Amino acid sequence: MKELKLLQNLYSQDLETRKNWYSHVAEAYNRLRPGYSPEIIDGAVKIAQLPPKATILELGCGPGNATLAFAKLGFSMKCLEPSLAACNLAKQNCKMYPLVEIQPTTFEEWELEPEKFDAVLAATSFHWINPEFGNFKISQALRNNGCLILLWNMTPQPEYEVYLSFQEVYQKYAPFLDRYEDIQTQKDIVQSLGQKAIDSGKFQDLVSQQIVCKVNYSVDDFLLLLSTYTPYLKLEIKTRNNLFAGLREKIENNYGGNIQITYVSAFQVARKYEA
Q: Residue 36 in contact with residue 265, Cβ under 8 Å?
């Protein structure tokens, strides 16, 4: 929940700040952020009842973590990504798919194409969209009976016993980051995010599916992965370096230089509201 509050503070910042938010960690984001399993992708496509030649508008595609999965299914995609660095990576990753167009722009700046898309996709990016206008603009972009598809990979968490061993490091350097999201907490957060779309009055019939994923990381990759998340991006460089040095020492001395993380992955599909 704290991360969502941090992001809400960015709504009021200038677009240039938001455009460059992930730029210097785009390569790490591309390499280390988890993708979305076939179970999640297939479930979303099935519930949304996407036709074989569906057109999809993707909001904040990043380097294409979810884009590729939909491109491989043959869909026509227009993907918006404000970070130029991430945009270039997405173009490179999707170069084999001519039906995918990557545009370096924010959703706010994008010129609306009314009722053109069978689905609007947001893969761990819906929380960046300002709800005051975003849900309305999304609904305008959708055709009648079109769907909003939300994908989520929640913030990776170490096993609870490992987290407890990290606490003294967080308390020393970044006590406001000393929190643990268990599986139920992450499921509740996902549900609340989807409910925000329903509460806007622009969507209905929310369907969700969640799975629990586990991934192993080396200490180097784990710390680089953390550096791609908003709370860590907001840290002063010296504070982040001290925090990561402390975590590295714990992982190398106690866990052999490797760590397993757990997170909730989910899809949510809601249909455009028709009065």
A: yes
